[in-house]
Design brief:
This protein has one domain. 37% of the residues lie in helices and 12% in strands. It has seven helices and five strands. It has a five-stranded parallel beta sheet with strand order 2-1-4-3-5, with helices on one face. Helix 3 runs antiparallel to helix 4 and helix 6 runs antiparallel to helix 7. The protein starts with a strand and ends with a helix. The model has no long low-confidence stretch (mean pLDDT 89). Its EC number is 2.5.1.157.
């Protein structure tokens, strides 16, 4: 699964997971939105959740936006492709550890790979990060359950269980 990232460059370069992915030849970074190839765009504002049914749409290509959470507004995601939101997952990165939906670029790409049935690719992406394996461990059950869903509506149903558990906690 090819990983492509539209890179805005507004994060701390020392903590930027997209730049590190590029250093390890695990992703291609683009500084112009028009250069980003067509694929499944991971977009938290998308109307549909990513599911295994999107594997055909992905054509082996995942696209992410690397920007700070402060600038991750809907307008920032105007890229060509099939837009899908990731379901409930918990961050393992040191900045947002334990916070739901606050994933780094590499966590988002790895989660998408798991949901689309490419867990080995997810492990490859996370390998350069000392907390990478922790992400897969923290989210082992939801990632497995999402990857077993038939479509977006099933993913949303599973997500609602996790959100109900969060609200009860």
């Amino acid at each position: 699964m090819e990983c492509h990232v539209y890179y805005e460059g507004d994060d701390d370069p020392e903590k930027c997971t997209a730049r590190r992915l590029e250093q390890f030849d695990e992703a291609t970074l683009y500084r112009t939105m028009g250069q980003v190839p067509y694929g499944v765009v991971l977009n938290p504002h998308a109307e549909r959740a990513l599911s295994p049914a999107d594997a055909d749409e992905a054509l082996g290509t995942l696209v992410a936006l690397d920007c700070s959470w402060e600038s991750a507004e809907e307008a920032a995601f105007r890229m060509n492709g099939v837009h899908r939101a990731l379901p409930f997952l918990v961050a393992a990165n040191p900045v947002n550890y334990g916070r739901p939906f606050r994933l780094t670029t590499v966590e988002a790409l790895a989660a998408a790979c798991c949901i689309l049935g490419a867990r080995e690719r997810a492990e490859e992406l996370l390998e350069p990060f000392r907390w990478g394996e922790t992400f897969l461990t923290l989210n082992e059950e939801p990632l497995r359950r999402y990857s077993e869903c038939a479509d977006s509506s099933e993913v949303v149903a599973v997500q609602e269980e996790y959100l109900a558990d969060e609200d009860a906690a």
